[in-house]
Amino acid sequence: MTNDGPVQHGYPHLETVRASINALYKRLSYDTVQTFATSVAPVDVAFCDTDDLYLGAQRVARELVRHYRLPDARLVVSFREMTHAANVELTAGPEYFVELNDRFRTHRRDIGAALAHEVMHVYLHRLDLSFPGVRENEILTDTAATYLGAGWLLLDAYREDAASSQKLGYLTPEEFGYVLAKRSLVFGEDPSVWFTSAQAYTAYVKGMTQARQDSEQPPLTAAGWAGRRRYARDRRHAPGPQPGVPYTFTPDGPGRLRVSFPCPTCHQRIRVPVRGRVRARCALCRTVLECDT
Known about the structure:
Blueprint: E1 2-3, H1 14-28, H2 30-34, H3 53-67, E2 74-80, E3 86-89, E4 95-101, H4 111-127, H5 134-147, H6 152-156, E5 159-160, E6 165-167, H7 173-187, H8 198-214, H9 225-236, E7 248-251, E8 257-262, E9 269-273, E10 277-281, E11 288-292
Parallel strand pairs: 2-4
Antiparallel strand pairs: 1-6, 3-4, 5-6, 7-8, 8-9, 10-11
Helix pairs in contact: 1-5, 3-4, 4-5, 5-7, 7-8
């Protein structure tokens, strides 16, 4: 949790974020991901100052448990002085103890954001899905919470001005915006209407720009002129190295080539023959891709 400290910006964890999206599709399957087409509604996790602190926190926790399809999980929420925003004790269940920073006693509107991250820890724990390393695993948790419909709360908790700042989670604001944009492009959902933070909206717009660039890389037909020109040059020199680009050429028999590139939706590598216009379908997320190889 960043509280009145410097907020990191940009996309320093982008490769881990993409690997997290890919891992979700592999572990959950396309059909399961599709069941999360509707995000957590703001009204379901709203928390006003007149609500009882503990009853309200339990209510929000139950809503997130329901959203993540963890019907037999019971969360017990408490508050204490701590450095981090929150912590969850991952056990065999079905009861899990979540501790929230004492700061949330007076910043209640962000309790949903903190719980969205902690309940996702429980979800991933039950899936037995994790990355090596604490930071990588936390990035996976932020990405999963956001892609599966609750992480917009984490981005909305980001507020920054000349005198103070606040950010929850391990992703940068722009990375949260990127994952939200990836989700929006898949499900046709616009989370920006839920933001109460102007800075969150700005980060989402920047993230959408980055997300759209994933669909504008060669050999996809939506690639720009400069990318197409670089691709044509690399193809002439294939199968030599192609540093700094997402595609790779490999031999496919005498005089033939194949090109592999990441799916712009789930980042699974796709391999197609180099023979002009090709339509490919990602086997993992079922996205149909128009390519000019």
